[in-house]
Design brief:
The chain has about 325 residues and is of the alpha/beta class. The chain has 14 helices and eleven strands. The structure holds flavin mononucleotide.
């Protein structure tokens, strides 16, 4: 039985896992209710449990997925996903291998996000049920440096039967068709769902994306999580990034040095840091601006977005996005 049948997915489209409070049950539930796969991103274990449960209530009988960022995942997150009835779990930022057995015992398929053939080989070796293949055009934290169109066929070659979810560059029906024709099982969209009325992105963040003229791949917002990420420019990147998003060595070093400490801290520590970070001081964590934050947060936190931001011109409902992507 293929993954779509196993989890009971109607359309081959998923809303990407997006952490930091930008997705709650309203978005994931609306996506799942429309027949695609809604995903609750990393929150505190208690909040994940609550939001997965609420999303399932909004989409009765439909699957809702959970996304876990490996460096920040604790046993309580995994327990919350199982107890709340997540249909599958996607890991990002590592394979998540140490949690496989617990999830499998609970009957939950496990996928992991990869950005290179080498990462895909490693994930296959530890026995994932599927891969999310992320191209470098994607928004948020990036697992690799290759465009999806080059990476997907090479990973398809490794295992012809493995479910592959393709992430990066999905904003319209033609994008979905393209990746399905290239061997993907499901097309994954992040930025397109960020620009919906149900997303909890700060309204000014959404406006910046709608008017963006370019995106940057940078390490600027790396304190606590030194992995490259794609953002649209704001005052912080204008001040500290070169034209290609490059940052000076001391900024990269601060990210690397902070990584070990931050893993031991609760998610709320990131929000506390976001409150004190300033565009003119080069110490930026991975927090993104969500509703309820002050307006100036958009110039001192990360405006994660994929290259699709340059093509998306409207904020519509999640149901409308699913219908556009699925041609239904
Ligand atoms: C705001 C935002 C937050 C993200 N957070 C996560 C996350 O927590 N976990 C994850 O696996 N991927 C995360 N991503 C990456 C997405 O899973 C996905 O790879 C990406 O959105 C695809 O590119 P697109 O945005 O152009 O559709 C995030 C992306 C964005 C835009």
């Amino acid at each position: 039985m293929d993954l779509l049948d196993r989890v009971g997915l109607e359309h081959p489209v998923a809303q990407a896992g997006m952490g930091g409070g930008v997705v709650d049950a309203a978005l994931a539930g609306a996506v799942s209710a429309a027949g695609a796969l809604g995903t609750i991103g990393l929150l505190s274990p208690r909040a994940m449990h609550r939001e997965i449960g609420r999303a399932r209530e909004l989409a009765p009988g439909r699957p809702v997925a959970a996304n876990l960022l490996v460096p920040f995942t604790h046993a309580a997150h995994v327990a919350a996903c199982i107890d709340a009835g997540a249909a599958l779990v996607v890991f990002h930022g590592g394979s998540g291998q140490r949690w496989f057995e617990t999830l499998r015992t609970a009957g939950i398929p496990v996928l992991c996000t990869v950005g290179s053939v080498a990462q895909a080989r490693k994930a296959l070796a530890v026995g994932v049920d599927g891969l999310v293949v992320q191209g470098v055009e994607a928004g948020g934290h990036l697992m690799g440096t290759e465009p999806l169109a080059e990476l997907l066929p090479r990973i398809r070659e490794l295992d012809r039967g493995l479910p592959l979810l393709a992430a990066g560059g999905i904003a319209e029906r033609s994008d979905v068709v393209r990746v399905l024709n290239a061997g993907a099982t499901v097309a994954v969209a992040g930025t397109r769902f960020l620009l919906t009325s149900e997303a909890k992105a700060h309204p000014e963040y959404q406006q910046r994306l709608l008017h963006a003229e370019r995106t940057l791949r940078t390490m600027l917002f790396g304190v606590g999580w030194p992995l490259a990420h794609r953002v649209v420019p704001n005052a912080a990147t204008e001040r500290w990034c070169g034209p290609e998003g490059e940052v000076r060595a001391s900024i990269r070093l601060a990210g690397r040095a902070s990584a070990l400490v931050s893993r031991a801290l609760p998610a709320s520590a990131g929000n506390a840091m976001a409150r004190v970070q300033r565009a003119n001081v080069p110490l930026f964590g991975p927090t993104l601006p969500i509703v309820g934050m002050p307006d100036d947060a958009v110039d001192r936190t990360a405006l994660y977005a994929g290259e699709t931001a340059l093509r998306i011109t409207d904020i519509v409902s999640a149901r409308e996005v699913v219908s556009q992507l699925c041609g239904s």
